[in-house]
Amino acid sequence: MKHAQTALASLCLGLAVLTAPGMAGAQSEPYKVFDTKPVITEGPYLSALSDTAVSVMWMTDAPSHAKLRLYDGDKVREIEPQVDGLVPVGQRHVVTVTGLEPGKHYSYEAIATRVVKLKPYWPDKGLSISCAPATFTTFSPQQAKISFSVVTDTHEDTARIGRLMKMVDWDSTDALLHLGDAFHWVDSEEQVWSKWLRPTVAAMGPGKPLLFARGNHELRGAYARQLAGYVPTPEGTYYYSRAMGPVHLLVLDTAEDKPDDTNVYAQLNRTVPYRESELAWLRGEVTGNRHFAKAPFRVVAMHQADWGWLPDSGAAWTALANQAGVDLVIAGHDHAFSYHAPDKTHAYHTLILGQDQLARVDATDRTLTVKVVSDKGVTAHTLTIPVRR
Ligand SMILES: [Fe+2]
């Protein structure tokens, strides 16, 4: 892992920006540019890729501003984020790219420029650094097949992450899906990287996307409120859907496993209105999304297979999934494998992945297969679902 990080870091090159251009048409006096450039210390990696958008995130060792240079064949686009009209300056960088074309190859460079001092006028700047271009392919509603690899409940065990990541066939997988509880609780930025993202991104590289379904443990701890900044999504929410060829994937946030008024939360949780918003969004997806309507397979990926704690115990969610024709729920939370065939209550297959297992999902327009293998290389289960329409 250390080797991979070093190799990745070495791909980030200082740019020869030695002049201080000032602003075109503004005063001639330039701002100062010091001979210092940032180091990209983490990433870049692709978060929550879709058929038309992606969020790219990386870190630098010193305050910088960031942009993404996107190569689309001969065309070059630069995407620079702004918040309320200001370019963000910091060490954590997120650039969300929209307007991509489905099923298309792109390459990108993550670029960071040092900001030495944020003065009101003429802030002091530094030099830029750029990573070697990395390539990725957007999902497409039209692609003939899709493959993704799934892990869950890694719970800060970096040896476990290492074992599971080695089992992934990266050449043939389109995405890594993590079903939550990467942490016991979320405490700090360093923990987010050291206990999860660093070993994950080292294996995944800058060109494969991470899809993340938040677990109940991710709502806990002093840094829980900052976690979204490390698993950004173009939508800005933890729940989203993806049109991935034969699969319409619904990534849900099942939030906590106990009521908001449980004493341990000290009146700091309000998941009820949050889940109501999520359910309203889900209703819109299953009734209004064209790819959902025609996709051969509809898959829900979420942390708690029973939808998490809800005042109605998830009855409205189960009814909606049944009515919408969800084929498969893939979840974690139990730390042990189980499989439940469709029954009178649940009209869909439910596969709960264990903590030390890797699931590989492969789908064409005829068949969806999930193969679950333990970190000892033993096949725990193979589920094949034929298309029902
Ligand atoms: Fe959990």
Automatic annotation (TrEMBL):
Q: Which InterPro entries match?
A: Calcineurin-like_PHP, Metallo-depent_PP-like, PAPs-like, Purple_acid_Pase-like_N
The Calcineurin-like phosphoesterase domain is annotated at: 149-336
Q: Indicate whether Signal appears among the record's keywords.
A: yes
What would you give as a GO molecular function for this chain, any one? Answer: acid phosphatase activity
* Residues in the signal sequence: 1-26
Write down the SUPFAM superfamilies for this protein, in alphabetical order: Metallo-dependent phosphatases, Purple acid phosphatase, N-terminal domain
- Keywords noted in UniProt: Signal
Q: Which Pfam families match?
A: Metallophos (PF00149)
Its recorded name reads Calcineurin-like phosphoesterase domain-containing protein
Species assigned in the record: Massilia eburnea
